[in-house]
Amino acid sequence: MVAGKVVLITGASSGIGEYLAYEYARRGACLALAARRQERLRAVADKARALGSPDVIVIPTDISKVEDSERFINEAVNHFGKLDHLVNNAGVIQIDMFEDCKQISDFATLTNTNFWGSVYTTHFAIPHLRKSKGRIVGISSIAGWCSVPRMSFYCASKAAITSFYETLRAEFGSDIGITIVTPGVVESEMSQGDFLSKAQLEFVPVESTERCAKAIVDSACRGDGYLIEPSWARMSFLLKVLCPEVLEWLFHMMEVSSIAFEYARRGACLALVARRKERLIQVAAMAELIGSPEAIFIPGDVTKDEDVKDLQMQQRSTLVTVSRPSKKV
Protein backbone atom coordinates (compact mmCIF):
# COMPACT_ATOMS: atom_id res chain seq x y z
CA MET A 1 0.00 0.00 0.00
CA VAL A 2 3.00 2.35 0.28
CA ALA A 3 5.05 1.11 -2.68
CA GLY A 4 6.23 4.15 -4.65
CA LYS A 5 4.89 6.60 -2.09
CA VAL A 6 7.08 9.28 -0.54
CA VAL A 7 7.62 9.04 3.21
CA LEU A 8 9.44 11.65 5.31
CA ILE A 9 10.76 10.46 8.68
CA THR A 10 12.25 12.64 11.42
CA GLY A 11 14.57 11.20 14.05
CA ALA A 12 15.58 8.53 11.53
CA SER A 13 19.16 8.00 12.68
CA SER A 14 18.30 5.56 15.49
CA GLY A 15 15.56 3.90 17.50
CA ILE A 16 12.00 3.77 16.22
CA GLY A 17 12.76 6.20 13.39
CA GLU A 18 15.57 4.02 12.05
CA TYR A 19 13.41 0.91 12.02
CA LEU A 20 10.49 2.78 10.51
CA ALA A 21 12.80 3.60 7.61
CA TYR A 22 13.62 -0.10 7.20
CA GLU A 23 9.96 -1.15 7.41
CA TYR A 24 8.83 1.41 4.83
CA ALA A 25 11.80 0.40 2.65
CA ARG A 26 10.73 -3.27 2.69
CA ARG A 27 7.37 -2.14 1.34
CA GLY A 28 8.91 -0.18 -1.53
CA ALA A 29 8.46 3.41 -0.29
CA CYS A 30 10.73 6.29 -1.28
CA LEU A 31 12.29 7.91 1.79
CA ALA A 32 13.50 11.29 3.01
CA LEU A 33 15.36 10.79 6.28
CA ALA A 34 16.01 13.60 8.75
CA ALA A 35 18.14 13.79 11.90
CA ARG A 36 21.11 15.76 13.17
CA ARG A 37 23.75 13.01 12.72
CA GLN A 38 24.58 12.92 9.03
CA GLU A 39 26.91 9.92 9.06
CA ARG A 40 24.46 7.83 11.00
CA LEU A 41 21.69 8.85 8.59
CA ARG A 42 23.78 7.74 5.63
CA ALA A 43 24.23 4.30 7.17
CA VAL A 44 20.47 3.98 7.69
CA ALA A 45 19.86 5.14 4.11
CA ASP A 46 22.26 2.51 2.72
CA LYS A 47 20.47 -0.27 4.56
CA ALA A 48 17.06 1.06 3.49
CA ARG A 49 18.13 0.93 -0.16
CA ALA A 50 19.34 -2.64 0.34
CA LEU A 51 15.98 -3.56 1.84
CA GLY A 52 14.08 -2.35 -1.19
CA SER A 53 13.53 1.40 -1.18
CA PRO A 54 13.85 2.72 -4.75
CA ASP A 55 15.08 6.15 -3.67
CA VAL A 56 16.40 7.43 -0.34
CA ILE A 57 17.71 10.92 0.41
CA VAL A 58 19.37 12.15 3.59
CA ILE A 59 18.70 15.65 4.91
CA PRO A 60 20.61 16.60 8.09
CA THR A 61 18.08 18.55 10.13
CA ASP A 62 17.51 19.96 13.59
CA ILE A 63 13.72 20.05 13.71
CA SER A 64 13.74 22.21 16.84
CA LYS A 65 14.65 25.05 14.47
CA VAL A 66 11.84 26.34 12.31
CA GLU A 67 14.12 27.16 9.37
CA ASP A 68 15.58 23.62 9.37
CA SER A 69 12.10 22.12 9.40
CA GLU A 70 11.02 24.24 6.44
CA ARG A 71 14.18 23.34 4.52
CA PHE A 72 13.67 19.63 5.20
CA ILE A 73 10.14 19.64 3.77
CA ASN A 74 11.10 21.79 0.78
CA GLU A 75 14.15 19.70 -0.16
CA ALA A 76 12.19 16.48 0.07
CA VAL A 77 9.30 17.78 -2.06
CA ASN A 78 11.68 19.34 -4.60
CA HIS A 79 13.42 15.98 -4.97
CA PHE A 80 10.38 13.69 -5.13
CA GLY A 81 7.73 16.09 -6.38
CA LYS A 82 5.22 15.05 -3.74
CA LEU A 83 4.70 13.94 -0.15
CA ASP A 84 2.50 11.07 1.04
CA HIS A 85 3.43 10.27 4.66
CA LEU A 86 5.02 12.58 7.22
CA VAL A 87 6.30 10.59 10.20
CA ASN A 88 7.14 12.88 13.12
CA ASN A 89 9.23 10.65 15.34
CA ALA A 90 12.13 12.79 16.61
CA GLY A 91 12.27 13.12 20.37
CA VAL A 92 14.56 13.53 23.38
CA ILE A 93 14.11 12.72 27.05
CA GLN A 94 15.31 14.20 30.32
CA ILE A 95 14.92 12.52 33.70
CA ASP A 96 14.86 14.60 36.87
CA MET A 97 12.60 15.44 39.76
CA PHE A 98 10.90 18.72 38.87
CA GLU A 99 11.69 20.35 42.20
CA ASP A 100 15.38 19.41 41.86
CA CYS A 101 15.80 21.19 38.53
CA LYS A 102 18.18 24.14 38.93
CA GLN A 103 17.66 25.71 35.50
CA ILE A 104 14.03 25.40 34.47
CA SER A 105 14.87 26.83 31.04
CA ASP A 106 16.89 23.67 30.32
CA PHE A 107 13.64 21.90 29.55
CA ALA A 108 13.08 24.18 26.57
CA THR A 109 15.40 21.96 24.51
CA LEU A 110 13.12 19.01 25.17
CA THR A 111 9.88 20.80 24.31
CA ASN A 112 11.44 22.42 21.24
CA THR A 113 12.22 18.99 19.81
CA ASN A 114 9.35 16.86 21.10
CA PHE A 115 6.55 19.34 20.49
CA TRP A 116 7.58 22.32 18.39
CA GLY A 117 9.61 20.19 15.98
CA SER A 118 6.45 18.28 15.06
CA VAL A 119 4.47 21.49 14.83
CA TYR A 120 6.98 23.06 12.45
CA THR A 121 7.28 20.12 10.06
CA THR A 122 3.52 19.58 10.07
CA HIS A 123 2.88 23.23 9.21
CA PHE A 124 5.14 23.16 6.17
CA ALA A 125 3.93 19.74 5.02
CA ILE A 126 0.19 20.49 5.07
CA PRO A 127 -0.14 21.92 1.51
CA HIS A 128 1.64 18.90 0.03
CA LEU A 129 -0.31 16.39 2.11
CA ARG A 130 -3.58 17.98 1.01
CA LYS A 131 -2.64 17.44 -2.62
CA SER A 132 -1.85 13.76 -2.10
CA LYS A 133 -4.59 13.04 0.46
CA GLY A 134 -1.66 11.93 2.58
CA ARG A 135 -1.16 10.96 6.19
CA ILE A 136 0.65 12.23 9.27
CA VAL A 137 2.04 9.68 11.71
CA GLY A 138 2.65 11.38 15.04
CA ILE A 139 4.78 9.42 17.51
CA SER A 140 3.59 10.33 20.98
CA SER A 141 3.97 8.02 24.00
CA ILE A 142 1.99 6.37 26.77
CA ALA A 143 3.84 8.94 28.90
CA GLY A 144 1.28 11.37 27.50
CA TRP A 145 -1.30 9.88 29.87
CA CYS A 146 0.90 8.10 32.44
CA SER A 147 2.15 10.50 35.09
CA VAL A 148 5.67 9.06 35.33
CA PRO A 149 7.72 10.66 38.13
CA ARG A 150 11.02 12.30 37.06
CA MET A 151 9.69 12.78 33.53
CA SER A 152 7.32 15.72 33.98
CA PHE A 153 8.33 17.69 30.89
CA TYR A 154 8.64 14.61 28.70
CA CYS A 155 5.12 13.54 29.72
CA ALA A 156 3.82 17.06 29.11
CA SER A 157 5.41 17.26 25.67
CA LYS A 158 3.88 13.94 24.63
CA ALA A 159 0.45 14.91 25.97
CA ALA A 160 0.75 18.09 23.92
CA ILE A 161 1.56 16.11 20.75
CA THR A 162 -1.49 13.89 21.22
CA SER A 163 -3.78 16.87 21.80
CA PHE A 164 -2.26 18.77 18.87
CA TYR A 165 -2.90 15.99 16.38
CA GLU A 166 -6.36 15.24 17.74
CA THR A 167 -7.25 18.88 17.13
CA LEU A 168 -5.79 18.83 13.62
CA ARG A 169 -7.78 15.72 12.83
CA ALA A 170 -10.95 17.63 13.68
CA GLU A 171 -9.79 20.52 11.47
CA PHE A 172 -8.69 18.43 8.47
CA GLY A 173 -11.58 15.99 8.37
CA SER A 174 -10.87 13.44 5.63
CA ASP A 175 -8.43 15.68 3.72
CA ILE A 176 -5.37 14.47 5.64
CA GLY A 177 -5.25 11.27 7.68
CA ILE A 178 -3.61 11.29 11.11
CA THR A 179 -2.38 8.25 13.03
CA ILE A 180 -1.41 9.00 16.63
CA VAL A 181 1.01 6.39 18.00
CA THR A 182 1.55 5.92 21.74
CA PRO A 183 4.33 3.36 22.29
CA GLY A 184 5.38 1.97 25.64
CA VAL A 185 9.06 1.47 26.47
CA VAL A 186 10.86 0.52 23.25
CA GLU A 187 14.49 -0.44 22.61
CA SER A 188 16.34 2.73 21.63
CA GLU A 189 19.25 4.94 22.59
CA MET A 190 16.91 6.70 25.03
CA SER A 191 16.07 3.47 26.87
CA GLN A 192 19.63 2.17 27.05
CA GLY A 193 22.13 2.56 29.88
CA ASP A 194 20.63 3.51 33.24
CA PHE A 195 17.48 5.09 31.80
CA LEU A 196 15.08 2.46 33.17
CA SER A 197 16.56 2.60 36.67
CA LYS A 198 16.59 6.39 36.72
CA ALA A 199 12.97 6.50 35.61
CA GLN A 200 12.02 3.71 38.07
CA LEU A 201 10.71 1.62 35.15
CA GLU A 202 12.87 -1.50 35.50
CA PHE A 203 9.87 -3.82 35.71
CA VAL A 204 8.19 -2.46 32.57
CA PRO A 205 8.46 -4.80 29.54
CA VAL A 206 10.66 -3.39 26.76
CA GLU A 207 9.44 -3.99 23.20
CA SER A 208 11.79 -4.59 20.29
CA THR A 209 12.20 -1.64 17.96
CA GLU A 210 11.60 -3.77 14.87
CA ARG A 211 8.28 -5.09 16.15
CA CYS A 212 7.13 -1.63 17.15
CA ALA A 213 8.05 -0.15 13.75
CA LYS A 214 6.15 -2.90 11.91
CA ALA A 215 3.05 -2.28 14.02
CA ILE A 216 3.25 1.47 13.29
CA VAL A 217 3.51 1.06 9.51
CA ASP A 218 0.73 -1.53 9.53
CA SER A 219 -1.46 0.89 11.46
CA ALA A 220 -0.70 3.81 9.15
CA CYS A 221 -1.47 1.69 6.09
CA ARG A 222 -4.80 0.64 7.59
CA GLY A 223 -5.64 4.29 8.21
CA ASP A 224 -5.98 3.90 11.98
CA GLY A 225 -6.62 6.97 14.08
CA TYR A 226 -4.74 5.58 17.08
CA LEU A 227 -2.20 2.89 17.84
CA ILE A 228 -1.27 1.85 21.38
CA GLU A 229 1.74 -0.45 21.14
CA PRO A 230 2.41 -2.95 22.66
CA SER A 231 -0.94 -4.37 23.68
CA TRP A 232 -0.18 -4.32 27.43
CA ALA A 233 0.02 -0.53 27.28
CA ARG A 234 -3.73 -0.39 26.57
CA MET A 235 -4.34 -1.29 30.20
CA SER A 236 -2.66 1.92 31.32
CA PHE A 237 -5.00 3.89 29.07
CA LEU A 238 -8.05 2.14 30.52
CA LEU A 239 -6.79 2.92 34.02
CA LYS A 240 -6.31 6.56 33.07
CA VAL A 241 -9.86 6.80 31.76
CA LEU A 242 -11.67 4.70 34.35
CA CYS A 243 -9.51 5.00 37.50
CA PRO A 244 -6.97 7.81 37.07
CA GLU A 245 -6.26 7.90 40.79
CA VAL A 246 -5.12 4.24 40.63
CA LEU A 247 -2.63 4.97 37.86
CA GLU A 248 -1.25 7.97 39.75
CA TRP A 249 -0.96 5.86 42.89
CA LEU A 250 0.94 3.15 41.02
CA PHE A 251 3.52 5.59 39.71
CA HIS A 252 3.82 7.30 43.08
CA MET A 253 4.47 3.92 44.66
CA MET A 254 7.17 3.23 42.08
CA GLU A 255 8.87 6.49 43.00
CA VAL A 256 8.84 6.21 46.78
CA SER A 257 9.39 2.45 46.96
CA SER A 258 11.80 1.64 44.14
CA ILE A 259 14.22 -0.36 46.32
CA ALA A 260 11.49 -2.59 47.69
CA PHE A 261 10.08 -3.10 44.20
CA GLU A 262 13.50 -4.04 42.81
CA TYR A 263 13.84 -6.79 45.44
CA ALA A 264 10.26 -7.87 44.67
CA ARG A 265 11.00 -8.06 40.95
CA ARG A 266 13.83 -10.46 41.76
CA GLY A 267 11.54 -12.70 43.79
CA ALA A 268 12.63 -11.80 47.33
CA CYS A 269 10.40 -12.05 50.39
CA LEU A 270 10.14 -8.68 52.09
CA ALA A 271 9.63 -7.17 55.54
CA LEU A 272 8.76 -3.52 54.99
CA VAL A 273 9.25 -1.01 57.76
CA ALA A 274 8.08 2.59 58.06
CA ARG A 275 6.00 4.75 60.38
CA ARG A 276 2.95 5.11 58.09
CA LYS A 277 0.97 1.88 58.22
CA GLU A 278 -1.43 2.82 55.41
CA ARG A 279 1.42 3.45 53.00
CA LEU A 280 3.14 0.22 54.02
CA ILE A 281 0.01 -1.77 53.23
CA GLN A 282 -0.06 -0.25 49.72
CA VAL A 283 3.63 -0.92 49.08
CA ALA A 284 3.38 -4.51 50.31
CA ALA A 285 0.41 -5.18 48.03
CA MET A 286 2.23 -3.72 45.03
CA ALA A 287 5.41 -5.70 45.83
CA GLU A 288 3.47 -8.96 45.76
CA LEU A 289 1.91 -8.00 42.44
CA ILE A 290 5.37 -7.37 40.99
CA GLY A 291 6.76 -10.73 42.10
CA SER A 292 7.51 -11.00 45.82
CA PRO A 293 6.30 -14.37 47.20
CA GLU A 294 5.46 -12.65 50.47
CA ALA A 295 5.66 -9.07 51.69
CA ILE A 296 4.86 -8.25 55.31
CA PHE A 297 4.59 -4.75 56.75
CA ILE A 298 5.78 -3.73 60.21
CA PRO A 299 4.90 -0.20 61.32
CA GLY A 300 7.77 1.21 63.35
CA ASP A 301 10.22 4.03 63.94
CA VAL A 302 13.81 2.87 63.46
CA THR A 303 15.08 5.85 65.46
CA LYS A 304 13.61 4.32 68.63
CA ASP A 305 15.47 1.49 70.35
CA GLU A 306 12.31 -0.25 71.53
CA ASP A 307 10.90 -0.27 67.99
CA VAL A 308 14.14 -1.66 66.57
CA LYS A 309 14.10 -4.55 69.08
CA ASP A 310 10.51 -5.32 68.17
CA LEU A 311 11.34 -5.21 64.47
CA GLN A 312 14.21 -7.67 64.91
CA MET A 313 11.86 -10.12 66.57
CA GLN A 314 9.30 -9.85 63.77
CA GLN A 315 11.73 -9.91 60.87
CA ARG A 316 11.26 -12.90 58.55
CA SER A 317 13.39 -11.96 55.57
CA THR A 318 15.18 -9.05 53.93
CA LEU A 319 14.44 -5.82 55.76
CA VAL A 320 13.68 -2.85 53.55
CA THR A 321 13.04 0.60 55.00
CA VAL A 322 10.66 2.52 52.73
CA SER A 323 11.10 6.24 52.51
CA ARG A 324 11.04 9.02 49.94
CA PRO A 325 14.36 9.36 48.06
CA SER A 326 16.42 12.21 49.45
CA LYS A 327 16.97 15.30 47.34
CA LYS A 328 20.21 15.72 45.48
CA VAL A 329 22.85 17.73 47.30
Summarize the structure in words.
- Helix 1 packs parallel to helix 2 (38-51).
- This protein has helices at 15-26, 38-51, 66-80, 108-132, 152-172, 195-198, 209-222, 233-242, 244-256, 258-265, 277-290, 305-314, and strands at residues 6-10, 30-35, 56-60, 85-88, 135-139, 177-183, 226-229, 270-274, 295-299, 318-321.
- The chain has 2 domains: 6-242, 3-Layer(aba) Sandwich (Rossmann fold); 257-321.
- The chain is α/β, with parallel strands linked by helices and 329 residues long.
- Mean pLDDT is 83; it is low at 195-200 and 322-329.
- It has 12 helices and 10 strands.
Write the layout of secondary structure elements.
Elements: E1 6-10, H1 15-26, E2 30-35, H2 38-51, E3 56-60, H3 66-80, E4 85-88, H4 108-132, E5 135-139, H5 152-172, E6 177-183, H6 195-198, H7 209-222, E7 226-229, H8 233-242, H9 244-256, H10 258-265, E8 270-274, H11 277-290, E9 295-299, H12 305-314, E10 318-321
Parallel strand pairs: 1-2, 1-4, 2-3, 4-5, 5-6, 6-7, 8-9, 8-10
Helix pairs in contact: 1-2, 1-7, 3-4, 4-5, 8-9, 10-11
What's a quick, concise take on this entry?
The chain is an alpha/beta fold and 329 residues long.
Which key phrases capture this entry?
single chain; 329 residues; alpha/beta; Rossmann fold; 2 domains; seven-stranded parallel beta sheet; elongated
DSSP helical segment count: 12
Number of individual domains: 2
Per CATH, which architecture of the largest domain? 3-Layer(aba) Sandwich
Which fold name fills CATH's third level, the topology of the largest domain? Answer: Rossmann fold
Full CATH superfamily name of the largest domain: NAD(P)-binding Rossmann-like Domain
Strand content: 15-25%
Subcellular location: Membrane
Domain Ketoreductase: 5-189
Keywords: NADP, Oxidoreductase, Signal-anchor, Transmembrane
GO cellular component, one term: cytosol
